[in-house]
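Bug #77: duplicate submission created two jobs. Keeping one. Sequence:
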Amino acid sequence: MYGLARALARLVRSVSRRAGRSGGTTAPGRLLLRLSPRALARMATGLDEGAVLVSATNGKTTTSAMLAACLERAGRPVVHNRAGSNMAWGVATALLDAGSGRGQLGLFEVDEAWLPTVADDVHPRLLLLSNLFRDQLDRYGELELLADRWAELVAGLDGTRLVLNADDPLVADLGRGRDGVTYFGVEDDSQALPGMQHAADSKHCRNCGHAYVYEAIYLGHMGRYRCPNCGRERPAPQVAATSVALDGMTGSSVELRTPQGSLAVRLPLPGLYNVYNAVAAAATALELGVPLATVGEALESFAGAFGRVETIPIDGHRVSILLVKNPAGANEVLRTLTLEDGRLDLWLALNDRIADGRDVSWIWDADFEVLAGRVRRATCSGTRAEEMALRLKYAGVDAELTVERDLGRSLDAAVQGAAGERVYALPTYTALLELRDLLARRGLAPRWSE
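Kept job's structure:
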């Protein structure tokens, strides 16, 4: 049955791609796993170099793409779910061609709720776990529930190496008392926030329940912390960004400390959140044997993943796409926008579909107030366009405001009404997928492919 199921899944993938349906990244894997539930485990055995799983609430697509770039520059064959379909069926689709070449390494970004299921089938040689933030509470439940599931997963692993974010208390705790753990983090207090943001999540020690004391907060609840009650504190990272200079949308300059030596990198992606992505990818690449110089070359030439700070020319303007899907991630995008000169033209698309989470109340925890006085024109779209517009009003964003639910018409209006060269597009997840399909139909962007 497995052979027939795999053949049918490949046929569905081929038909989907010819029909232009986002590269056929979901339907083939769904069919395969329905007909042959153990297919994922069976295909994973064909990976000569085993598998690496990457999970996080924010940044897993970009981090995975950065890591893939490092491995490929080092000449390592990689099987990777590049399109970002990150549940079991997306990994299964990516694995349909595994085994056709020698020395293949599986590199899969995995949805944080699906991580235990996929890991049980794939038996990864390495897990990269980057962060846990509050996201889609109507789907995932409280943050601690995911942390408990990850802790249970890690406790049952045997021989799997871990690469963990030292700055995230929930993630760092997973490596305590274990061998084979590499920590990464940021150590530049010039990037510290003045205080804990409203959107910060992990504020209390999981060991004793006491509130953490922070020496520096870099992003959400991530930073240098310690528990004054039981003494638990941030582990010292082996790979760290010791100097960070953010230059708005043009990127950032980063100096890394690693066991293999220091590395200066000019990242072409903006924001401290992308610095974290790069440090995570670098730590994992080094753990997998990629030379330090090769890591630097790959990061400096990294072109980005779609929707994660990609810029597309449209009608004489540059549309820069920055995914926003939860308070912590949105705050970092907003923080990046405040570094730009002049008043901004924004296009915001807020959806409440299943993959976004039906509950969009998270926008009231994101600090849109930082845009007050900074926006010239804002166009709100998506299934909850009116609520996005209301949020901007309450944030004190005194700008020319347009509300148009239709994605295509709203985008056209935003571009045509822009005063400057650039429009900043801030879509939620399903709005991002709709935007990709729209741009592909117009011949402005390629379709996703594995």
